Amino acid sequence: MHTLSLLPLVILASNAAPAAAETLLPQGNFRTECLQIGKDGRHGLIAEVSIEGDTISASAQTYAHNNCDVPTVRADYRGIVTSARETGNRIDFTQETGPFLYTLLADDVTTYYNANVDSAGCGLDGWQTDVPRDAAGRTCAPYTFPTIGTELKDSVWVNQNGIEFGRLPLVWDSAPDAGYPERSSGILFTRMAD
User: Which residues contact 156 (CB under 8 A, 6 or more apart)?
Assistant: First the structure.
């Protein structure tokens, strides 16, 4: 009689075990300041990351100038955390990549991408302003995005000011045997109000 009453608890406990890894990652919404990127830091970038359970959603908004004034390109990403473990002062995690939606936000940028398909244009032609396209498995200079389902390794450091990743938001082409980053990128994501 007691054996049957414990069976549901055993089943629940066995199903909950894999979820323990995902709770290691800090949950919530985080955002960078305006970062200077590109040749001589002439462009700007603001990245946002949302971690909910085992899902990482990220966006990176590129701007025409380094004061993040005029939006030009937006990349949106979603991945699933498949494992996480504490290693010293960081959390190493592996994620399975989803699509990388790339959206051009300015007509002059769209014209440039269509004129430079093999470099800036991700190997895709027919770009339209405000129409997202999946850039998974493509190089959209200077970023190379993995194909959907690729296993990516990264690390996150949690501190009183927010979080810092080893690779996110600028490096997406790590080789499977690259291991986990041992140093943070130095790019701080501060917690946003929920």
Answer: 25, 26, 90, 91, 93, 163, 164, 165, 166
Asked whether residue 186 is domain-assigned, the answer is: no
Q: How far is residue 99 from each of residues 16, 19, 125, 140, measured CA to CA in Å?
A: 27, 23, 18, 14
Cα–Cα nearest to 166, from 176, 145, 180, 178 = 180
Residue 120 and residue 141 in contact, taking contact as beta carbons nearer than 8 Å:
yes
Pairing outcome for strands 43-52 and 90-104: unpaired
What is the count of structural domains for the chain?
1
Looking at residue 3, the DSSP 8-state letter turns out to be: H
Residue 109 lies in a domain: yes
* pLDDT of 10 above 50: no
Q: How confident is the model at residue 177, as a pLDDT?
A: 72
Q: Where are the alpha helices (DSSP H) in 61-118?
A: 107-115
- What's the burial of 107, exposed, middle or buried (CB within 10 Å: 0-12/13-18/19+)? exposed
33 alpha carbon, distance to own chain's centre: 16
Residue 25 lies in a domain: no
Q: Give pTM, 2 decimals.
A: 0.83
Is 2 a member of any domain?
no
Whole domain around residue 126: which residue ranges? 32-177
Render pLDDT for 53-103 as a digit per residue (tens, 0 to 9). Answer: 999 999 999 999 999 999 999 999 999 999 999 999 999 999 999 999 999
